[in-house]
Amino acid sequence: MEFPVYLWYIGGGMKIAVVGTGYVGLVTGVVLAELGNDVICVDNDPGKVARLSQGIPTIYEPGIDEMLKRGIAEGHLVFSHDAAEATRQSEIVFIAVGTPPGEDGSPDLTAVKAVANAIAPAIDKYTVVVNKSTVPVGSGDLVESIIRSHHIAEHLFDVVSNPEFLREGSAIFDTLNPDRIVIGAKRKEAAHRLVELYAPLERPMHITDLNSAELIKYASNSFLAMKISFINAISRLCETCGANVGDVAKGIGSDARIGSQFLQAGLGWGGSCFPKDVQGLVATADRLGYDFRLLKETIEINDTQTLHFLNRLDKRLGGFADKRIALLGLAFKPNTDDIRDAKSLIIIEEILRRGGTIQAYDPIAAENVRALYPQIQYVDTLYDVGKDADAAILVTEWNEFKQLDFSRLGAPMRQRILFDGRRIYRREAIERAGFEYATIGA
Ligand code: UGA
């Protein structure tokens, strides 16, 4: 059902607790404070609480710095380590803690359960408990049963599912301008509290049941990952038949039923969400007795995409042994320092294993990779990355790479070979600078 938002917008801020100050929790808390609510963000890491209380962001995200400082200065945003006390002071409590993949690929709900147990004894008036963490179908019921096990009366609380669709790198914008807001609840009254909270955003809201809301999140991420794997599979065909995947993507994407977004062929999808969520939906399907082969193949295509590209370079160089490779970009995508499941890690691992050496440049993610691979060389200036290199690989499509001075990049290189893993360059411009150019799907 769709609600005309104006019916519910009665104005005035609400009292909110957000438990977990990771990516989703912090951005949610900061944005809700910006909208005029009184928000307590809770984390059990005292170092994080101290840093955030001083207005220092714990994640890299465009726009968060100013909004965090403004929320604190205006008295709408505070940080605490005490989930129970924050619950006592709030009418809506968001659970926004991590759900990392467990051994079988299904999300580990330890942190969600711990929060439910921590907040339950503090529920002494009607409270809406909102699952914002990405959790498998049935988790809303689980949280409800945990709270009930603390003998909290049924009329004192409701559990609501309100999945998050923000992207790293544009998290603030996405939270303020979501395509849709999904609210899953057993009782209408509980859903209405969230409708009221989000009304100022004036975005479409979909009210549904708990299980459907939980599934919408996994189905969305899995569908997007499948779309990328599809175009990456097409890119392999293009390479063998001489077609151009960019043109194919444009041609199919302009059909409104397909849509042009998430059809950018490249090294494949990474990050903290798609790999975990696609795997999570496969695990849920297995548990429910359905063999989700479409998603298994989606993963398989993604797992082989980067290696396939790397093998092309290996062949061109006659092996990586004693070759020096320059990497442009390390983050899993631009505008973030996140390297979780980044394609750069597979590339580094594989080149080192095959006897090559690496020098890398990334505007902000280099330190995170250095912690894992201290043995490779990191340069602070973009144009130093080419020094004595036998080839360069474009791994992350940072804006600053888009207008490269190719002559300057190529000058210190031993061989001017550029493998573009994100299809951001025009072949003619690069070849004019004396480079040999190879890209995905062409
Ligand atoms: C993704 C979803 O887009 C968000 O809606 C969701 O809220 C989030 O996961 C989450 O579940 O928390 P995010 O992981 O930040 O967001 O990054 P995306 O921008 O979706 O990119 C994911 C991966 O796909 C990146 O590795 C990117 O390089 C790759 N990608 C994306 C492509 O290879 N081609 C494309 O056309 C688009």
Can you give a write-up of this model?
The chain is of the alpha/beta class and 442 residues long. It has two domains: 15-208, Rossmann fold (3-Layer(aba) Sandwich); 209-442, Rossmann fold (3-Layer(aba) Sandwich), CATH 3.40.50.720. Helices cover 42% and strands 14% of the residues. The chain has 17 helices and 14 strands. It has helices at residues 23-34, 46-53, 64-73, 83-88, 110-119, 139-148, 171-176, 188-198, 210-241, 245-253, 274-287, 293-317, 343-353, 366-372, 399-402, 406-410, 427-432; strands spanning 15-19, 38-42, 77-80, 92-95, 127-131, 157-161, 181-185, 205-208, 324-328, 357-361, 377-378, 391-394, 417-420, 436-439. The chain has an eight-stranded mixed sheet with strand order 3-2-1-4-5-6-7-8, with helices on both faces. It has a six-stranded parallel sheet with strand order 11-10-9-12-13-14. The structure holds uridine-5'-diphosphate-glucuronic acid.
